[in-house]
Structures are given as C-alpha cells and as structure tokens.
Input
Amino acid sequence: MAAITNEDLIKLLGDKFGSKITGVNEPYGLLTFETTKDVIIDVLGFLKESAGSGFNFLTDITAVHYPERNHIAVVYHLHNMVDKIRVRIKVFIHEQTPTIPTATVLWNGANWMERETYDFFGVKFEGHPDLRRILNMDELNVHPMLKQYPLEDPNRVDKKDEYFGR
Amino acid sequence: MNHNQPVYTDNDPQDELVTLNLGPTHPATHGVFQNILQLDGERIVSGVSTIGYIHRAFEKIAEHRPFYQITPLTDRLNYCSSPINNMGWHMTVEKLLNIKIPKRVDYLRIIIMELARISDHIICNTIIAQDTGATTTFLYLFQFREHIYEIYEEVCGARLTTNIGRIGGFERDFNDIAFAKINKFLKEFPVALKEFESLLNRNRIFIDRTAGVACVTPEDALSYSWSGPLLRATGVDYDVRVNEPYCSYDDFDFEVPVGTSGDIYDRYLVRNEEMWQSVSLIEQAMEKIKHEPAGVFHADVPDFYLPAKEEVYNNMEALIYHFKIVMGEIDAPKAEVYHAVEGGNGELGFYLINDGGRTPYRLHFRRPSFINYSMYAKMSEGMLLSDAIINMSSMNIIAGELDA
Output
C-alpha cells in the first residue's frame, strides 16, 4: 500500500466528518486543520486507528491563547511513523469556558501533556484521571501562559515598543 | 506540584507499608526529582512523581525575546547536549524563514550534534554503570566528555551552556585546533569505548542488575509517546534523523540500533551502539567537508545572520544589519512551524508560531525527558527500590529538559 498523503487524508476526513473539518492548510508541508471539541476525540481516534497505517504516535499537546478572539486553541500534533507523515489539529475553545474532552482515553502519554496545558492555560480536560498542576506550585492562582499576564512589570517604560519606533 | 512538602506518616514501622520520600534532592536521583513511594519491604507498591523544581518559564520568556536571544534559553533545556538544542532552534527559525543552508555548514553542525549526542550518552551509560556499582567505568569514560567540551570551547568559547552557532550557520569557522581536537577525539574515543564495553557488556553483575529489569513493551512505549533510545530499546525503529532527515542527515550512511525487550540492558546497548554510529557519522562528515568549498561557515542571509564585529565597525551595511537584528526589526513571515530533531533523549520538537512581530507569538518545546518521565511512577510499581534507581538513570531524565 502506498504511503498516505495529505490529499488522501483531507479526503478521508472530509468523507467521515464533513463540515466538522475546517481551515485546512499545509504550512511547510504539515497538514493542519481545525475541528470542534464535540468530535475531537472521534477525529483523534479515527486518525489513530483508521487513517493509512494509523497515526499511533501522539507527538504533543499544547495550547495557544488568542485574547483578541477570546479563544484558546488546543493544538495536537500526531505522527504516522510508517507513512512518515505528521498532522496538526487545532480546536478553538472559548476562554471563558475552556473545556475539552481528554485524550487520555487514546494515549497514556496525553496525561502529562494535558496536565501541562491545564497548568499553563487553564484548559480543563474533561474525564482526565488526575488533572493537577504539574510544573507550577499548587498555590498559584493564575494560569501564567495566558496573554493577560505580563512577563515583567507592566509599569516599566524603558522597553515599550513605541520608544524604539515600532 | 507541591513544594517541599515531605509526606510524614505516623506509621508504625511494623506496619505493612512504609512511605519513602525519594528526593527532591537525593544523590541517587542525579537531579531534582521527588518521588513519594509506598514501600512494602524493598518493593515499591505505588509512587507519585512531583516535578517542576527547576521550572524557569522558558516558554513565557521566549514570547518576549527576539529569535537570536532564544538560543541561550534552549541551552538550558537538556544541558548535557545543549548544542543539539541550539541547532534544533536555529533550524526551526531557518525553516520558518526558508533559509537554504550550505552543505558545509550542515556537515559542521552534524559534527557538533553527534559530539553532543556522544556526551549525552556517555553521561547516561556511565551513570547506569555507576549506580550498579561500577565506579571505574564511570570515571574512565567520563574524561571524554571533558574532551568534547574542549572541542565546544574551541568552536564557540563555552563549555556547558554553549549558545553555539547562529541563525544561518556558525559565528566563526572551525579553526585548525578544533579540527585537530576532533581528530584526536576520533582516534582515542573508540579505544576507550571498546574498553568500556569490554568491562560491562558481558559483566555478570551488570547483566544481573539490568537484564530483564523494567521491561517495556513497544505498545506501552508508543502509548506513552516515548521517543529516542528508550523507544528504540523496545524495538521500534523510530529516529527523527532517518524518518524525516534534517541537516543533510540523508547524505550519511548510518544504522539505527534497536533493542528487543526494552529493559535497562537494551537501553544501555542501544546507547552504546548509537555512540559508535555517531563516531562513524563524525568521521564521514570530516571526510565530506574536504570536498566542500573551504571557509563557508554560514548562509548568505544578511537579514538574519549577525555580521562579524570588525565588519560592524568598518562597514555601513554591516552596521545597519547588526542594528536591525539586535533591535529585532527583521520581518519574519506570519506562519507556524514545527521542527523536530533527534535529541539525546528523543524527539526534541519546537512548535513556533510567528505573528510577524519581533518575538514569537508562541513557542512550545516538545521535551522528550518530560514526556518519557510520565511513565516512571507507573513503571516503578512492583519494582525493587534499587531497580527503580537504575531505571531512572537509564531513562536519562535531565531536570532542565523535564521542567523547561
């Protein structure tokens, strides 16, 4: 069987999930698409079990905060080692209700990746067996990677972009 | 994580289970890890891992630094093989900017990256030996890490946190002393590695302590997203260098060793064989460099490559470029890119989102130590305490990479 390509994957996913798959593009050859949180586990499970030789390796789970859109994107990277192809899946969830089903039902490795994402972005993975902070201390009451939390004292003026003509 | 909260129990020692706080600082763990173990005699019943003791918020800091200032942050991830992290980061940015790198630079990078891989594997394998009681082998092979650091020093001036290379290539060409040191290393290291192997490979005590201990099935390893030597020891032949070649690794002839049972002995053998392969890769690269135009050590990308200092002081264009780069005024495309390299412990990935500003919008490190370590507490269940210690050494968990 020939190795699965990005075009095959788009077709497979389109047939199976239809309009739930949006925003398909291929930055630097890596197939990227968006989906919604109600089907994300189905999409991941489908990719793991049925797409080509199977995307059985969960490379990474992380998140990105887009405050101007009021959304947090949870980003999954999967890898099909046999066909040597990667895929990136994004799920946009509202920053006020950051919940998404857990991927620990598919991969054990998702456990710590989701804990890290919860720790830094406050994304609540529903059904996660042990959703606690992992790198920050338990007493911390913010999720520090959200964009509203500055790295340095916001009252400093010596690093403001406008003073450098930016 | 729970900071500095050892678990106290008022258990009667005669009780069945004893709570043991292994770490955060314990000489046997070679780093800052805490595991709260429930012991039944010497056997571990359950364990809870706590990490985050040296978390430094690199991903947050990176959102406020221009690209060239992020390189020193990557040093401090896996500080046993920082050049691999540095190069991985440079290659990520080069992928984002579509920079074409000359072959000679690729080969020079491979020399440095493979030296770093050897130094990483030296640490891991000698420490397995050390923890099984073989101090001689530890001291004997460890001096070659020192020789590798001397090569780094000759190339970039630093030893541990190297900040080696620049976006687009190297900051300077390798000098004759550096090449002489590499050649000396290539001559002396195989002899020492051979002797190291002859001391351990068929050593009764070493085999008894490691073979059949902490076996991992390939299914489990893949489910826990393991990568690198640990995954290969279970029999899965996944190596980023082969699977999606970067930095001209496809020009080279090398083998990916795999194990069969995923136990500690297999991990040791896989790492040892990888050192041999790395030696061969360096030899091949040294040979290939001779056929490339001499003196090429960076790509011709003045927008991104910092010009030499003497140029900056004497040349208008260089001064302008220097100013623009240092002030972060370069325009980078709005795009996102994932780039992975084979680090000492597995797939080291950089997920970079650029929104056209002077700093990344988001930078995420896929850190193999962090992902590999998530299985540790589960693995330890049912294991003898002394085996769990060697198991941790054989996973080569580097605290800097674990906690980012």
